[in-house]
Amino acid sequence: MISSFLLGITIFIALLTAVNLYRVAVGRTIFDRIIAAGLVGTNGFILLILIGFIYGRINMFVDIAIAYALLNFVVVIVLGKYFDRGREKQP
Amino acid sequence: MLVLTIVAVVLMFGGAFFLTVSALGLLRLPDFYARTHAVGKSETLGTILMLSGLAVYNGWELSTIKILFIVFFVLIANPTATHAIARAALRTGLQPWTRKRNGITKTEETRKL
Question: Are A48 and B54 in contact (CB under 8 A)?
């Protein structure tokens, strides 16, 4: 019973990730795209841990999820630094 | 054992609820700063609840400690990343959304960015 519950919640979070991809594609500014991509990454490692529970190999998948979480944080910070145009547009 | 499973299922339902709130906020809120509000808080709380439910379901193993490490890291890193992006947007000159000013919606002005 619990395994079918885990499968259902995995499919639900996958659908939520697809909804968030809309904001990555259509986002009005570049920053919308960045935070939506970060949210897709966060949902991604939750999905990784859930898939590890479904396949019964959580020892392997949790390490991949740790690496993915660290990489997601670094990507968002670096993109924020890169697109920060500083005092260019300030009066 | 059954009690721990029920606790895990309730925590995972809470996490799925907050992740849904975060996705809806990202989809429906009017401008960038409001969307950072949805992402910075609801996403963090949803992730923490979901991973805590999985850790309770897993029991006492090494994997549980790794999952709790991910929870602790997300608790620190996710609001920091959202704050950094919002600061970059404010320094770049993105104006916050207001309802009307001089007959023009402010979102129309920031659409060029």
Answer: no
CA separation for the pair B78, B111 (Å, rounded) = 27
Retrieve residue B47's tokens: 């992730």
Residue A44, min C-alpha distance to chain B (Å) = 11
Q: Are B93 and A85 a contacting pair at CB < 8 A?
A: yes
> What does the domain layout of chain A look like in residue ranges?
2-83
User: pTM here?
Assistant: 0.85
Summarize pLDDT for A66-89 with one digit per residue, the tens: 999 999 999 999 988 888 876 654
Q: Is the ipTM of this complex over 0.90?
A: no
Backbone φ/ψ region at A56: left (φ over 0), alpha (ψ -120 to 50), beta? left
Indicate the domain borders of chain B: 2-110
